[in-house]
Amino acid sequence: MENRFPMVDLKGQYRNIKDEVDAAIQDVIDNTAFINGKQVRQFAEALSAYQGGCRVIPCANGTDALQIALMALGLRPGDEVIVPAFTYVASAEVIGLLGLTPVMVDVDPASFNVTVEHLRPALSDRTKAIIPVHLFGQSCDMAPIMDFAREYGLYVIEDNAQALGAEYTFPDGRKARTGTVGTIGCTSFFPSKNLGCYGDGGAIFTKDDALAERLQMIANHGQKVKYHHSVIGCNSRLDTIQAAILAVKLKHLDDYCRARNEAGRYYTQRLKAFDPQEQYLVTPAESPFSTHTYHQYTLRIRNGRRDALKAFLAERGIPSMVYYPLPLQEQEAFRHITRAASSLEVSRDCAYSVLSLPVHTEITRAVQDEVIAAVEAFFG
Ligand SMILES: *Cc1c(COP(=O)(O)O)cnc(C)c1O
Question: Is residue 169 within 6 Å of ligand 1 at its C-beta?
């Protein structure tokens, strides 16, 4: 059966801000400054304020953001970068692309995120950086990770593509936006992300001014002065039209995150009541040190029944997705370039048991009730 409602409702979201977005796009077209128009700088400034005043370097997409981050740190081929095995490919792809060695570590099955305990055994004398991924919308426990990085002189690049808008609380009570805690933070404005544009886009965060200059230079052909190239860089820009759209949507980001959080909590409350012993499924845990933006609402389905549940939902016109069906250590592209720091069993188990339910900024209780009823019918 065709899906009766969407996994992500970008049309419904647009409808609610249409006048503002249309005017912003028209303004760019009227001025024809399609590349590096004033809206790019204005959006970067607004996002900087949102992120508590860090430097913001806009770029073409989230994968570029990660690549430029690694390029700026002066790593050499053979240097090792620690990355979780259960993540979107981009987090690790850029490591391989630059001739660095991805060292894969497992994740905590409750939060799907790496902890410092996972990182420790991965350390070698070639380790130079860590890429903690704030998967599915909540922060890794960054304070112990930063202590560990300081102890061993490692860079920390936060992959914040899924958690923009989340807030991390340090043990002393201090709060920070995800993406502003590590050496560098990276995010994506892919349409379905927490803050999505109408095409591709990304940004890089840092609090280090010298590093910000270097990141900016690399994103712009390695030049500070036009036609004078001091390092090998790339061409990675955020379009002016996308920046104009993002400036409008940034004002709604907190509301969007709140809507996702309420929807996520509702699923958990209902599904926990249905299956209190976790016989059939495990609901996603909220980490005490982070807010959760529920970029995805991801269950672990017990007893190998994930694919059967997915098919059962599809027959009833209910979409669901598997993020991600293979752990990185089982991806052909990574088999020969990777060092595994452990058995990576949890990552494998997650890949074969996870199922993400529809969650987005416009979702209604009626739709959620229908999803929940279908999940219950499958197990009931
Ligand atoms: C989306 C995503 C990226 C890459 O972003 P793009 O803009 O698609 O290049 C990187 N890491 C994670 C975890 C993501 O979800």
Answer: no
